[in-house]
Amino acid sequence: MRKYRQFVIGLLVGGALMFAMPSMAAVVKQYALTEVGYPIEVNGTSYVNSQLPILNYQSNTYIPLRAVGNLLGANVNWNSVLKRVEIRNGEEQSAQNNAFRNVRASGTAGHYTVTGEGRVFEATMNYAVEDGHDYLLEKSYALDEGAPAWSEFTLNISIPHKQLPINGTLTLELFEYSAKDGTRINTLSVPLETFLP
């Protein structure tokens, strides 16, 4: 009787393992990435970075996105509001929406100049800078004219060095407050700078 019980238990355990193993194999997907030995050159400039190497997977070459963007002269930024990577090159149009247009940002290391045109209620536009987690500043700016006219603006933004992120993107948000209920409307997000550790 004891041998019969052990046989049945062994049969059940073996059957369970037989059906579980293919299921577990389907869940665990592995990638065999190998570091490549050949150089990557873009417009005459070689990519070299021992901390972020070039990798190969199934005869496809993988290189860090920001590195390629830098070699091509494009800006690669993480848009924390929309949760996506955005790549912009010099030929791309400036940022705009119904209340803000021709918005361009320049600068580095916490000092930025943002220019553009605004068309907002009672000529009061607002802006804030966030690092993906916290707002570092929020201010208002008085335009020369209110909507429906477009007015030019120039914002000089300074973020203290100790507030700059170690890893993340500083993003400017242009917006206005609704006269109806006080909520933010016509928000336009503009990447200022991305920081890497």
TrEMBL record:
It comes from the Bacteria. Residues 110-182 form the Bacterial spore germination immunoglobulin-like domain. Keywords: Signal. It holds the Pfam family Cu_amine_oxidN1. Residues 1-25 form the signal peptide. Residues 42-92 form the Copper amine oxidase-like N-terminal domain. InterPro entries: Cu_amine_oxidase-like_N, Gmad2_Ig-like_dom. This is Copper amine oxidase-like protein. It comes from Cohnella lupini.
